[in-house]
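User: Hi! Is it possible to get a structure for several chains at once, not just one? Here's what I have:
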Amino acid sequence: MNKIYLQQTLPNVFLERKDIHSDVWKQEVIFEKGHVYLVEADSGTGKSSLCSYIYGYRTDYKGKIFFDDRDTRELSIADWVETREHSFSILFQELRLFSELSALENIEIKNNLTNFKTHDEIIAMFEQFGIGDKLSQKCGKLSFGQQQRVAFIRSLCQPFDFVFLDEPISHLDENNSLIMGEMLMDEVKRQGAGVICTSIGKHIELDYEKVFTL
Amino acid sequence: MKLVWKLLQQHISPGQLIGFFFANLFGMMIVLLSIQFYRDVVPLFNGKDSFIKEDFIIINKKVSGGVLGSVGNNSFSPADIHDVEHQPFIKDGKAGVFTTNNYDVTGTFGMKGGDFNFSTEMFFESVPNGFVDVDQRQWHFDPRTKTVPIILPKVYINLYNFGFAQSRNMPKISEDLMNMIELGVKINGQGKEDHFNGHIVGFSTRLNTILVPEDFMKWSNQMYGNGEQKDPSKLILKVANPTDSHIVQYLQKKNYETDEDKLEAGKTTYFLRMITGIVLVIGLIISVLSFYILMLSIYLLVQKNTTKLENLLLIGYSPHRVCLPYQYLTLGLNAIVLFGAFGLVCWERNYYMNVVEVLFPKMVAPNLFITFLFGLGIFVCVSLIDCIAIRKKVYSIWIHKS
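Assistant: Yes, the chains can be modeled jointly so their relative placement is included. Here is the combined structure:
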């Protein structure tokens, strides 16, 4: 997949509102592979909605979203599964980790789908983040910041054309944010992928090519 | 897969699954056992008299009135036959007429190679071929061979064994040795006398007559008969259900009678069939209920694990892969139930077959294959429905999500 095209997209909940001044809603927006985007937003402007529309788990919007030339409303379940396995990676704002599984198992359950990373590569990423000692810790026992790092590692464990990061550093300190930025860009360059990052203020330091205000 | 299972086995309630397991085990066992029992035991009641099926009954008019002078009163007129044939309990709308011989018959009985025999005057009767359940190649007369197939009442063999043979120190004979009996038939009529060989096809407990094929009766009545047409004194009827109370009412109204004992085998089979049917249905109901327990249990499990399932779908798992652990779980449980129930049936069957074999040593036991096939059928149906239900449930999570 080379581009994501939002055509006059607008969440249903905003239909009544007349005062929409957004770079994304009700606009023609194109995200291209190989570029880095930032979507800045205030709370309640539909940042997570945007992620969920593009990622295909909500359809309560007007307008259209295209992957290359395909209308996403026409994608079958199998198409979405394929997209999530090979084209899109996402770091959810709410993380969506499995608290019953250990940190390592949370990564493996994702990596097993495509066997994209080796065990050693995964361990190296944990080490890089300074949570190498948390591998066998149940995710439910980790702090939110630690969980955020685990979820981030998980999002790198698959091939992708685009990676979404929904408020990736909301609970991280400066140092860890920098590490995350480095790790992200390493992987993105390796894969030639596009990055779409959202933030409500504090955002991960990357060389954004375009900034949208939601 | 291992990790997915580790995740999704959360909230599995062993209590519910054990409950399902035993309920389904007993349901399945009852179903299979009733099928096997029916297959094992019913032939014992049907098989003994294979010449007349259990849904045939033989009726005659009650002999009444004076001691003498009642000749002809106890035969069925064409109007009587017509009336019987139009009763609702009659199958195929035909009554079989017993035709008798119009000439003199003398029978000579003896053992092959033996130097004794005894003769007696006797009679023949015949019914239409459709009412006699014998291989039609055997039940056929060819004037060139001069051999007449005959079915004798079982009483005769008893008379011989326990009367004649006993008093003369003769060997007793079993039904299997009936070919040992030489039966000579001498027919006198129209000034002719001819000898025939009787070939005993079998012994019947349900026929109190000496039965010969219809074609022999026609031929011999033409050859030796005096041409007199007599109304039949007995009718054989094919009925839908021998225990139908309408039959009894009709017979009473018309002053006809049938030997009650003759209906016993039919009744026994009928009730056996009914009871087996009831037991089978109870087994099926238990199975269906246990199936519901499993479904509820799985639904509850899916419900409790909705968030996990949702997350799995979001990180790229297909609904199909997410279904698999629960589908394997139900398949595994159902398979254990199938084999467990089948094992129990084999064990229980062993117990009652010991008794059956003592009572009916000659019986050839049917095998368990059909029963197993039936169990396999239930297994396949139930598993298929389970898998589809689980699939639908997981897909509904996908749909709700969007």
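Residues 147 and 317 of chain B are 81 Å apart (CA to CA). The longest strand of chain B covers residues 192-204.

User: Great, thank you!
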